[in-house]
User: Which sequence fits this backbone?
């Protein structure tokens, strides 16, 4: 059975009613299965995970983007996380019997439709990127190129969208693409010193000489009064989650800082959890075939 995953990120993490309406819009497409919805008030952001057949994936994502554009006004939005638009980033991920190329085609189809029908500027990223520098999400949604800046920058040819107008309304712009599975993993530290958090994030980041397949930023969480190191692990098989966690602990310790807690945003593959279990429990012979639920539902 062909199955694709879509993980749209919406710039609303404080109003559960609004998020519920966006999720309902996605769910209104018959055959869509909502797997998870995560809301974060500090980041003012929600991450929705759904799966379906490729034939209905674009329609489901489009309905969510359309509803978000009606409910979210980026002119009044505030939050810790970098953001580009009401429907901030929308990736398609292959699950079963679907290729990454097929996911690229879905991203292009969705991007074209969002630009044309909703009048929202769309930037293609990841494997769907048509411009090399736009492959990395962090290159598009950078510190100096977010909602506030894009209203002027989009007029520059360098920042011209792949689809849609060269002007930004209250829904901002959207970044749509295709990629492999990604783990969003955060570690909260017992400190309020953002400089320490930034140094730790830099030590983790692949582009700064840290761990391969790791992207990291530091944020201050007002509700918890602590610094968070927020990571995206783009290849958990080559850089497992426990390796990233242990490096955060080691770097934090060098500044006399302890780890308070860690959290996952969205879902994680069973194989990634098995890797962590083998590391921390020294269960080298452990296999996912030993997981009860997996055997039941195979």
Assistant:
């Amino acid at each position: 059975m062909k199955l694709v995953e879509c993980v749209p990120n919406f710039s609303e993490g404080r109003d559960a009613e609004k998020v519920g309406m966006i999720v309902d819009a996605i769910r209104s497409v018959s055959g869509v299965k909502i797997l998870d919805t995560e809301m974060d008030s500090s980041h003012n952001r929600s991450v929705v995970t759904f799966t379906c057949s490729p034939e209905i994936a674009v329609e489901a994502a489009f309905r969510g983007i359309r509803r978000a554009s009606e409910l979210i006004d980026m002119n009044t939005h505030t939050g810790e996380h970098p953001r580009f638009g009401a429907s901030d980033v929308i990736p398609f991920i292959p699950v079963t019997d679907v290729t990454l190329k097929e996911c690229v085609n879905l991203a292009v189809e969705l991007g074209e439709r969002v630009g044309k029908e909703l009048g929202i500027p769309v930037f293609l990223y990841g494997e769907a990127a048509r411009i090399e520098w736009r492959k990395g999400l962090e290159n598009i949604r950078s510190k100096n190129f977010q909602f506030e800046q894009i209203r002027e920058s989009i007029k520059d040819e360098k920042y011209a969208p792949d689809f849609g107008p060269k002007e930004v309304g209250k829904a901002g712009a959207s970044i749509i693409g295709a990629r492999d599975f990604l783990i969003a993993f955060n570690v909260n530290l017992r400190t309020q010193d953002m400089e320490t958090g930034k140094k730790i994030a830099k030590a983790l980041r692949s582009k700064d000489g840290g761990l391969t397949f790791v992207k990291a930023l530091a944020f201050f969480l007002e509700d918890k009064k602590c610094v968070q190191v927020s990571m995206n692990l783009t290849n958990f098989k080559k850089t497992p989650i426990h390796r990233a966690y242990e490096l955060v602990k080691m770097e934090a310790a060098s500044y006399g800082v302890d780890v308070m807690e860690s959290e996952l945003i969205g879902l994680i593959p069973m194989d990634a959890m098995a890797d962590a279990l083998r590391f921390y429990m020294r269960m080298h012979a452990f296999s996912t075939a030993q997981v009860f639920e997996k055997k039941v539902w195979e």
Summary: DSSP finds nine helices and eleven strands in the chain. The two ends are 14 Å apart (CA to CA). The chain has a mean pLDDT of 93. Residues 274 and 288 are 7 Å apart (CA to CA).
